[in-house]
Amino acid sequence: MKRGLKAISIMVVVVLLAMAAAACGSSANKVDVGIVLPTKDEPRWVQDEQRFKDALKGTNYSTEILFSQGSSAKEKDNVDSLVAKGIKVLIICPQDGDAAAAAVEGAQKAGVKVISYDRLITNTSAVDYYVTFDSVAVGKAQGQYLIDHAKGKGEPLYLYAGAASDNNAFLFFQGAWSVLQPKIADGTFKIANSSEAVALQGNSTLTRDQESKIIGQITTNWDANEAKNKAQTNLTAAAADMKGDVAILAPNDGTARSIADVFASDKAVTSYVVTGQDAEKASVQYIIDGKQSMTVFKDVRTLVKDAMGMAVSLLDGKTPETTGSYNNGKIDVKAKQTNVIVVDKSNVKSALIDSGYYPASDFKGLQ
Length: 367
Ligand code: BGC
Known about the structure:
The protein is of the alpha/beta class.
């Protein structure tokens, strides 16, 4: 009997130790906030990762950042693995806005709050909040820059857009079209590379379907190589009256640099003005060198601060502050929005260097 008791108490101790070890193990793996970003292949998202890491120093909550590498399947695996680690909040920038619905629906079912980051997840009710830049303003700023730097009348206008799987591509194009269309209508610009845009050039606003038709022709898929090939094809097909001084709506910096290189190497192109966005270091250098005309600076530090602020409010059981809402095709998602800044050669130093965003030593020829 005594021996039996001893055996039982040893067993109890063993079980307790095992339970303690398991608890320790799970708390070591436990993650409060999961962050999922689209790809490491574009400097934009590597920058976001770094800004998240900077912002997370000194927080009490544990976080983990995973990349989807351009694959919605990998994105879903990432979300599932974070949910399994017990996350309470998911901050996710979708690779493909529609395809990400399945991943976040799973997370929401598990009780996780979902924050869509920069890109909106579309056609699902499983998005709780959205932190974003003013993407329509990005497109407007790009279009306005081309207008402000137009040379006379009848200037050829080359249009390029982002990936149709990214809701932002529509917002950027919508913003650009809103200012460019009146200038196409009054003859300042003539569209050089999209028959769909020409067919719709009398419309001051476009439906999503109409935008889809144009974007289908002018998409770069956010891919610098695809942008380069498309620009080459466009210039090969262009008649002489579509060269000379030209304006180019390029949706972001990665595509702008490759499109600019193609236009720069065409002898029949006398001059070009080309837009961009993200203030990527390589494009800041292009602007200093006069190879890219402008970029739209989106201060990622602010977006990261807003996203983490929202996550912490949710973890603390509070309601995050929002400034408006975005319809995602299914619901209105409460959103916090951040303004953007136009940068060209004239203010590159004050906006990006003096502000402490980048060190001057990263660039050559800065004045
Ligand atoms: C982002 C841009 C980025 C693009 C390509 C968009 O959703 O807002 O900043 O350049 O995706 O990754």
